[in-house]
């Protein structure tokens, strides 16, 4: 497949998977609804095989549930699951900080600082909006600076889908005040790493940055906004 003059070397399964993820992320397929497999197959001009394979991957990652003889339903994300996922990601990323602490060099810290400055710039820009994909990319890149230092190759396969569950259900709707606090925590992490305070750095990440109790007000607002988006999309679909 060629797009904008560039050959897409991904497998058809990967392309269909990314398409479905995009539809979910943009709110065109809402949690609790069934995926219209026949319509998607016709729209993309593909057979059922790559679509089935993409659906299986989505189920393995927790995005959908395959119901025999009924279809494929997009999973909803409950508050209890959000709390559990935050705890899991906090535990994993803080453990990585401990394990790679001595590998973090000045160049890595400079990269993290640069990314965090770009995030702040995005947040303060008049062009910033609640669904800013560039901000999402920068935030992921900041975390990946130290995560990619881990020799555990399975780590990325575990952490990223879990994060995407948080960010894709519902569609990301950033809260500027909360994200500025997150940027402050990024700066504090950098300072603790510079000072050689490994355990304090890990504690900050586990007990504050990924803590539900530390950010409960913002987390509830974030997902409330998402549910409003889902309901609006659902109402729109019913009218069309």
Helices and strands, with pairings:
Elements: E1 2-3, E2 6-7, H1 12-25, H2 37-44, H3 48-60, E3 64-67, E4 71-74, H4 79-100, H5 106-124, H6 133-147, H7 154-168, H8 176-194, H9 198-209, H10 216-239
Antiparallel strand pairs: 1-2, 3-4
Helix pairs in contact: 1-3, 4-7, 4-9, 5-6, 5-8, 8-9
Low-confidence stretches: 1-7
Count of β-strands: 4
Q: Report the C-alpha radius of gyration, rounded.
A: 19 Å
Termini separation: 31 Å
Structural class by SSE content: mainly alpha
Explained architecture:
The chain has 240 residues and is mainly alpha-helical. It folds into two domains: 2-76, Arc Repressor Mutant, subunit A (Orthogonal Bundle), CATH 1.10.10.10; 79-228, Up-down Bundle (Four Helix Bundle (Hemerythrin (Met), subunit A)), CATH 1.20.120. Helices cover 67% and strands 5% of the residues. It is built from ten helices and four strands; from the N terminus they run ββαααββααααααα. The two termini are 31 Å apart. Mean pLDDT is 86; it is low at 1-7.
């Amino acid at each position: 497949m060629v797009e904008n003059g560039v050959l897409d070397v991904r497998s058809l399964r990967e392309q269909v998977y990314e398409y479905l993820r995009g539809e979910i992320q943009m709110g065109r397929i809402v949690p609790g609804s069934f995926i219209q497999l026949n319509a998607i197959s016709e729209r993309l001009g593909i057979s059922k095989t790559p679509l089935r394979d993409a659906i299986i991957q989505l189920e393995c990652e927790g995005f959908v549930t395959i119901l025999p003889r009924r279809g494929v339903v997009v999973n909803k994300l409950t508050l209890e699951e959000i709390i559990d996922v935050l705890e899991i990601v906090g535990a994993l990323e803080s453990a990585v900080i401990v394990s790679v602490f001595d590998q973090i060099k000045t160049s890595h810290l400079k990269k993290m600082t640069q990314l965090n400055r770009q995030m702040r710039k995005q947040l303060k820009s008049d062009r910033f909006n609640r669904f800013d994909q560039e901000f999402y990319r920068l935030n992921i890149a900041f975390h990946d600076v130290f995560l990619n230092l881990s020799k555990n190759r399975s780590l990325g396969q575990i952490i990223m889908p879990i994060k995407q569950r948080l960010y894709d259900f519902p569609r990301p709707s950033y809260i500027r005040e909360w994200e500025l606090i997150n940027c402050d925590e990024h700066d504090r992490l950098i300072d603790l790493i510079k000072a050689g305070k490994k355990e304090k750095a890990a504690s900050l990440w586990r007990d504050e940055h990924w803590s539900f109790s530390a950010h409960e007000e913002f987390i509830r607002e974030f997902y409330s906004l998402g549910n409003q988006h889902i309901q609006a999309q659902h109402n729109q679909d019913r009218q069309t």
